[in-house]
Amino acid sequence: MTQLRKLAILGLTTLLACSDDDVTVPAIPQFSESAVELQQLVDDEVTTQNSTFTSFGMAVTVYSNERGGWTGVGGVSHEDVAISPDMVFVAASITKTFVAALALQLQEEGVFSLDDPISKWLDNINVVDDKATIRQLLDHSAGVFNYAENPGYVPALLADPGREWTPEEVLATLVEDPYFEPGTGWSYSNTGYVIVRMIIQKATGNSLTAELRNRFFTRLGLNNTYFNLESYPNQLAHIWDDPFGTGEYTDFIAQGLPLQAYLSLGAAPGSVISTSSDLARWGTLLYGGEVLQSSSLEEMQLVNPMSFVDEANPKYGLGTWEYNLNGRIMYGHGGTKSHRSLLVYYPVGEYSIAITTNRPDFDVFTFLERIINVIETLI
What we know:
- By secondary structure, the chain is α+β, with helices and mostly antiparallel strands.
- The chain is 35% helix and 17% strand.
- A hairpin with a 1-residue loop joins strand 11 and strand 12.
């Protein structure tokens, strides 16, 4: 027997003789170990943004069940009020991940099928083809006109900021003829989610607010997440926007403008209010398989081929974008509703990243790449 084989056998015998307590398992690196580098990215971005927008602020969270979480903040909400980790932002279209997950849960429970047509649940929806299904509303293949493309959308918001819009009023006031027959094309439409809200409320007998709170916010411990006109104790980062494209940003809250119209008109498509840390946890819970049955999660992530443009562009499932970021397939959603937000989950690394800012034109994907580059040196 060679000396090398003797040594190998001796090593194996020693290992087998060890108790579990004697074996040292390498510690899993925690995201907090990259806190200095990640915070520097936030600070540098704030400095860059402040050269053109002096009230820029942001909050960023990286989260994994195994690696824990890190949250960094920078900049200001307004004047000298700094962004804090518990400050909430309008998550905008990240809301669609919650609404689609709710619809899929209701399908799991047999309340309805995503292949039910609108006509099964709602009457007299004249501005849409009621043969369109819930699934087509969720994946934007129903052909429904997007109310946000109506030239009267912004004027309607500003004409009466204190108005509490109902879904029926949105359809009657701002929705025009369909783009195409259901299932024959793809066009992103917030209006589809207005109709899904109506169906959910009809099918459950509860408000969408109550369903989201009971199923997700409370049950999952998303204690700093709210919907639509719910009251919230946290301070909302001020809303800066340039609604008419003049190049001048206005602080809506400092102007004393009420937010009822701003939130209620696009409630189901985009009025979740949350912290970056809650959003990142939601991403890990949802796409990590803790919210939906595996078959439902597969449905959510199955992209509609008609949403495909090319490999450089994202593709759409049910309330979820599939992003290809330099070969990394990630799932999530972005949003722009005065605040700019992004939530992504990376299945390979099993982590989520949530970015929230108060600047609607912020280049969130370029910043995302910088965050990913730092955390991947850790893992």
